[in-house]
Design goal:
single chain; about 180 residues; mainly alpha; about 0% strand; rod-shaped
């Protein structure tokens, strides 16, 4: 009535074909050793032990290979050749090439191009070669002319006032003297 089996295959463990082969070889070796020990008696017991030691070292090497070959999920069962898969290689500090040309990202390249364009525009603008600079210079010239005219008028008005005041003072001084 309840669930069949475990929760989402938690308890399932699959052994890879390499591991099965290693186990079978180990069992065959043990069977051979036992036969040799039974047949050889005491004199031959030294040699199988040596073989056993070499067998242990062989097994540990196989274990290391299995450990290196173990991969996540189904990768261990299926040989995957994905041309798009990039294996990350860790580089040592001595191998890093700091002097070589750095690959810039698209954003960095665009940012640099933008700055260069801005600098070019400012140089042209200061030299007065852009349309906006020409318009600005024309506007400035008009304003200068207007200011010069205004300054000239003020100067004339001031002179007129000065003459009027000096003439008025002369009149007063003349009337006081009488």
């Amino acid at each position: 009535a309840g669930r069949k089996g475990g929760h989402k295959g938690r308890a399932r463990q699959y052994t890879s074909p390499e591991e099965i082969d290693a186990q079978l070889q180990a069992e065959k070796q043990k069977a051979r050793e036992e036969e040799e020990q039974e047949e050889g008696g005491e004199g031959a017991t030294g040699e199988p032990r040596k073989e056993k030691k070499s067998l242990d070292s062989d097994e540990s090497e196989e274990d290391d290979e299995d450990y290196q070959q173990k991969r996540k999920g189904v990768e261990g069962l299926i040989d995957i050749e994905n041309p798009n898969r990039v294996l990350q290689t860790t580089k040592k500090v001595t191998q890093l090439d700091l002097d070589g040309p750095k690959e810039l990202s698209r954003r960095e390249r665009e940012e640099i191009e933008k700055q260069k364009a801005k600098e070019r525009y400012m140089k042209m603008h200061l030299a007065g070669k852009t349309e906006q600079a020409k318009a600005d210079l024309a506007r400035l010239a008009i304003i200068r002319k207007q200011r010069e005219e205004a300054a000239r008028k003020k100067e004339e008005e001031r002179k007129a006032k000065d003459e009027a005041t000096t003439a008025g003072k002369r009149m007063q001084s003349l009337s006081l003297n009488k």
